Amino acid sequence: MNSHDQLAAGAASARRDSPPPRRKPIHPRTALTAVLVVVLGAAGAAAATGTAFSAISTHYEVIRQALMKDSAAGVREHAQAIQFIASRLSQDFSAASAGVAESDARAVRELLPEIIECSGALAAADGLAAVRTAFAELTMPLVRYHRLVQGARPVVAYCPMEKKSWLQPDEAIGNPYAPSMLRCGEIVQR
């Protein structure tokens, strides 16, 4: 064995015997940024393959599901995705990308600033009560948008006890406002 081989063997042995290098912990902001990149990238991909309303509905449903479990997990990221989709639609608007007839395009354009504002408020909400209040506020313009959408769309449900509406993908009631009354409500629009 020559001296070069001995050095290489010694270095390999030292690597096996030494502990692995310590990794720096990930800063919470870095982790949040990574999550946002993934969520917003998915939002962009969803918007590219369907209508903006369909992409918004997908993120809205994730939020509704979390609230049904009495959780705010993921709400901020999905509310930001809704805000991103609505902002992008506002900047590069077409009736086709909005999922509405040309005759309804103006009405949707007028709803977008409210959707952007309400989804931003939902993203900033702190605590379940504030999240539910902001979710109800976001639901109002989305229900008006829903009425204009062509093709497949979620249904609108209403809870008479809470006096609030929400969108959901099917007719099995799933109330996001009152976890103790998950099945309280009725379908009011299809």
Give a verbal description of the structure.
The termini are far apart. 61% of the residues lie in helices and 7% in strands. With 190 residues, it is mainly α. Strands 2-1-3 form a three-stranded antiparallel beta sheet. A hairpin with a 4-residue loop joins strand 1 (155-159) and strand 2 (164-168). It has a domain at 28-152: Up-down Bundle (Four Helix Bundle (Hemerythrin (Met), subunit A)), CATH 1.20.120. The radius of gyration is 24 Å and the shape is globular.
Key descriptive features of the protein:
190 residues; mainly alpha; Four Helix Bundle (Hemerythrin (Met), subunit A); three-stranded antiparallel sheet; 61% helix; globular
